[in-house]
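Late entry, written up from scratch paper. The run itself happened at the end of the previous shift, but nothing got recorded in the book at the time, so transcribing now.
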Amino acid sequence: MYDISTRKRALALVAQGRSLNSVSWETGISRAAIRSWKDRLEPLPRMAPPPAGPPADEPAYAYLLGLYLGDGCISAHPRSGYYLRIVCADAWPGLLQQCRDAITKVRPGVGVYTLPREGCATVTSYSRHWPSLFPQHGPGKKHERVIALEPWQQEIIDAHAWEFIRGLIHSDGCRITNWTTRMVAGERKRYEYPRYFFTNVSDDIRRLYTDTLDKLGVEWTCCTRNGIPFNISVAKKASVALLDAHVGPKY
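Output as recorded:
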């Protein structure tokens, strides 16, 4: 039995041109059920999950929230409960392990498994409580809906801001080495300097990132990178040093 919001989300994905196979894989709903909803959309009763209670580990939750906002989703199980899925690139196995560790710290006792895919892996965990812990969950893409923190989430982020920033950068950010040239005593010399980028299409998620940077005293600028205008850059030496001390490059 599926509630109306679950059915609407599945049909919204189909309306985007997605195949029934891919929608079924992402949502955990059978293809037959999705097919039967195409011409009929009526609410079906489904019991709401019980309150989750606070996260067992607040620093781990702040980090996991950053990962979720960047590369995560929540989908309903066909019978009951929900899957939390975080996509991690194969290039950074350390990030994949940190994601697994954060999930088990936030919800001790839950199962966590990794589904390998081409170039990446999906860290997945099942629980009835994921929508309560991540109320930003909803149908459609994150940048197409409002993303705002609940007061209890904001309190955790305020207390563990660096963990939140780490999660966001580990999902949608990077540390790179830029270079430029300058004329010195008539000779052109090359200079290299580190720089952090964070890229996300959602205005709300970028604002959560920059608001938190402001509270931490990190200077940032908006910039266009490779024609994409959704980038936040941190390049000032002192600010890069702060990110290096608390975030560092992915591994």
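The mean pLDDT is 87.
(Scratch paper discarded after transcription.)
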